[in-house]
Amino acid sequence: MHYDFRKIEKEWQDFWAKNETFKAKNNSDKPKYYVLDMFPYPSGAGLHVGHPLGYIASDIYARYKRHKGFNVLHPQGYDSFGLPAEQYAIQTGQHPAVTTEKNIATYRRQLDQLGFSFDWSREVRTSDPKYYKWTQWIFIQLFNSWYNKTTDKAESVETLIAVFEAEGNANVQAVCDEDIAQFSAADWLSFSDKKKQEILLQYRLTYLAESEVNWCPALGTVLANDEIVNGVSERGGHPVIRKKMTQWSMRISAYAQRLLDGLNTVDWPQPLKDSQTNWIGRSEGASVTFKTVTTNEVQTSYPIEVFTTRPDTIFGVSFMTLAPEHDLVAKITTAEQKAEVEAYIEATAKRSERDRMADVKTISGAFTGTYAEHPFTKEPIPVWIGDYVLAGYGTGAVMSVPCGDQRDYDFAKHFNIPIPNIFEGVDISEEAFSDKDTTVIANSDFLNGLDYKKATQKAIAEIEKIGAGTGKINYRLRDAVFSRQRYWGEPFPVYYVDGMPQMIAAEHLPIKLPEVDKYLPTETGEPPLGNATVWAWDTVNNEVVSNDKIDHKTVWPLELNTMPGWAGSSQYFNRYMDPNNEDEIFSKEAIDYWQDVDLYIGGSEHATGHLLYSRFWQKFMFDLGLVPKDEFAKKLINQGMITGESAFVRRINTGYYQYSDGSSQYEMEDSEKDFDLIFGEYFLGNLVSWDLLKGKKIHDAVSGELYKLIDVFPKKALDSIFADSQFEIEKISFTVSKIHTNVDCVDLKNQIILSKFLKFYKEDTSTSEYFMTNGTFSVSREVEKMSKSKYNVVNPDAICEEYGADSLRLYEMFLGPLEQSKPWNTAGITGVHSFLKKLWRLYHSGAEGAFAVSEDEPSKDSYKTLHKTIKKVEEDIENFSFNTSVSTFMIAVNELSSQKCNSRAVLEPLAVLVSPYAPHIAEELWKLLGHEGSIATVAFPKFEEKYLVESSKEYPVSFNGKMRFKLELPLDLSKDEIEAAVMAHEKTQQQLQGRTPKKVIVVPGKIVNIVG
User: Fold this and answer.
1) CB within 8 A of 448, min separation 6: which ones?
2) pLDDT, tens digit (0-9, with 9 covering 90-100), for 773-802
3) Using an 8 Å Cβ cutoff, are 544 and 535 in contact?
4) pTM of this prediction exceeds 0.90
């Protein structure tokens, strides 16, 4: 019987869908297990073979847990709001929803054909109003909450209002804006409603504020720091500038310490924990205030607050540095320095924060013309601005101690600022000194002779004593900007009354995205929702109405921004627990049953984005009593990447001639025209086979890889080309560009398939034999990230069609450990496909390949093979070592085939063992074994140690050190009994031929050696 994988896989995929085989219940007597993948953004390109790696791993584990008796929740959905669909809408006018729906259909087809055991009845899409209704609802809860430092949790803003009404804000311990004016209960009661709203905005967990943002003009939106790579947008590579805008922000900083502490309670990869720890950036030190010195020009003294982790070095301050965006810069800059400062600010705005943080080599700055007074010495200290100080980190100002900080040291050296030495016995003539452990303070008044710890404590005490500051814990983590100037995102449930934000009541949600004619910002610079003509809120009828009805009495304008990409992914794991509940985000019964995610699999690139924001929202929801756990995922695994093997062709792009030293400028210019004509006619723009170039590169040049012409092409041909010219071919070199080509245009010998390639390349190129190898172009190969832009994508559709989904699943696991990156090689899949055919034949040992399974008792060897396989596979799955399981299956099938095993007692449990990895063939074999229904919940085979315990030993019997035969004997025989059995054996008698041996050496369990 032929292994018809196409027919088998299609039938079982249809069976699972029709019977809802993997549908999970929200109540069960079975223990629960929740397996989750980071849900995908449905791009237009669909899946490539690198995408399913994590899904296959999670599916193996989900299927295994079902076999182990668990009620498994394994849902899937789509993170369907995103920039690509909107960019396509801008280019074509097609609504993003249409594009997204089409892309989802492709993803669903591809996911289904890979045999994943998803519970599709729980599918969610972040762009579905039924889903983002609850994203809007959470936003409202955040708006209506504040963070109480005393109770260390979020509370309803009503409790804060009650305090204000009773005693004002003097004793309120909150995470809030800085510099909030103090008021009494009487003051509060006398404030206007608008004034009260303005004050409350300074405390709310989501709030409106003017802040420095990463503005991408090309995309027309604000980007988060994690959406910027090397100073440009991750999507499209567009320039990003710093700009002040009024934005919605979320006070994630309130949870900084809890986010750090929570990392100790979850089983997540240490590198990811380290990334979050560094991103949150906890540091201990002091907040110190320096006051600017008044002059005739600047008559107001302004406080400059800094946070320092080294208050012990306060006497080493020789200048101060403000971020170019700091609010004080415009107020304190003198007229003389104004032009220089403004030019510097403009230049800095073109650099992203990450770029500025990473660039330690560039030294730049500008003097404001103003001085600040040292709190102890009262000496004037110059105030500079420099782009190595960030407005959003700390206070946006630093006290610069050049003798103790290398950046300050380099800055001071560059601008000739004094560098006082406050370290005893340390030479700072070449570099700053930053070793805290060996620090002894000098030239610092009351700190002289103290080490780092004692000096720090003393400095803080003295700073507090003179009222210049206080000891403080600081975090690098900044509040998260929560606005995007885009169309395709969640609308805010917000309207504005006299400029103040008002929340739409939860019973009127969702507020759906309006239709617009254009997806670009308006001509007046408003976000795309400014193009909507029906985008106003009627507070009487509680509905969205036409803009022309806005009267600022009962009809008000709605928010024009939309939520960022991470909004919808910050609570989807909880919504999966009860996705069809229209009355609440999830029922108490559902959340109490599922609790949290047991296993979460996804990429490490989300460490400081989705994974941090999700933890923040989970802790907030925990504070409100909505969820039972304050961490949403117990265990996280970051799967590695399946890389592609890119193919590169080389194209000639520049020719060079090495002129003699005595050549005049005129001669060279005149000759260059002739050279360019010849080189352009015969060489420029042509492709060169990689085999001609390999190993001959001189070096990399600005215009590409540099080669000598004579090293690459036949001398006879070159002599003919340059015969009538003055040019010596030995002096000619050229460069080639390295160009990605589609891997589908390359055969297994790394040679271009010209018929395919010329359709792809679409540029003229010579097919002269001088540029080719054996009539074709060879290519070089490099392992890179699999990407559409690199033309190295392998489509799983083609793999499934040729080899089947089970082969793809096994091969991706076989490639190597789950967490590691590994290169894809299509040729390698034939090995696992052959294994599946051999597995199929094991069950089809009858006449002409008929299915044949006996009821006979298996042999001892077959039992041994089965149980060592059970043991190894179970250990591998529990340890997520899926690659070694595949090897174990191969060994088992080889052994059982050699043993000619066709016993049901072995082949039935073997099918269950294989099921998590290759579910389609396992289901078919289970059916052939005579069972009804699916194999999915059949109990996992139990390992029995007794089948691996050896009862006998095959002894090698040697004569004078040479092994002559083997004899199997029971392991429990004594030394004398072993000797007696060996001596009595007929083969021993044949070897001795009547002689009496001098001695018999017996090592029980190992060898027998007869001497003499």
Assistant:
1) 441, 442
2) 888 899 999 999 998 889 999 999 999 999
3) yes
4) no
How does pLDDT run across 939-990, given as a tens digit for each residue?
A: 999 999 999 887 788 899 999 999 999 998 888 889 998 999 999 898 998 8
Nearest one of 441, 438, 386 to 417, comparing CA atoms: 386
* CB 251, CB 147: distance < 8 Å: yes
Where helices occur in 576-706 by DSSP H, the ranges are 588-594, 610-623, 665-682, 690-693
| Geometric angle at alpha carbon 384, from 413 and 286, rounded to 5° | 95
d(CA 759, CA 516): 39
Instruction: Say if strands 687-688 and 822-823 run parallel, antiparallel, or are unpaired.
Output: unpaired
Sheet hosting strand 1007-1011, strand order edge to edge: 962-970, 952-959, 1007-1011, 999-1003
pLDDT in tens, 740-752: 999 989 998 899 9
Per-residue CA distances from 270 to 58, 267, 367, 607, 636 (Å): 20, 9, 43, 11, 10
SS3 content of the chain, % helix, strand, coil (to 5): 40, 20, 40
Residue 294's CB: how many other CB atoms inside 10 A? 14
What 721-728 contacts at long range (C-beta under 8 Å, 24+ apart), as own/partner pairs, is 721/678, 721/682, 722/678, 725/674, 725/675, 725/678, 726/671, 726/674, 727/657, 727/671, 727/674, 727/675, 727/678
DSSP state of 441: B
Q: What residue type is assigned to position 419 of the chain?
A: I
Q: What is the dihedral of CA 466, 469, 473, 475, to 10 degrees?
A: -160
Query: DSSP class of residue 508?
Result: G
Given CA atoms 240, 246, 247, 253 in this order, what sign does their dihedral have?
A: positive
Tokens 């209704």 correspond to 133
Cβ contact 619:255 at 8 Å: yes
The strand ranges marked E within 677-730 are 687-688, 699-701, 704-708
Please list the residues that pair with 751 across neighbouring strands: 778
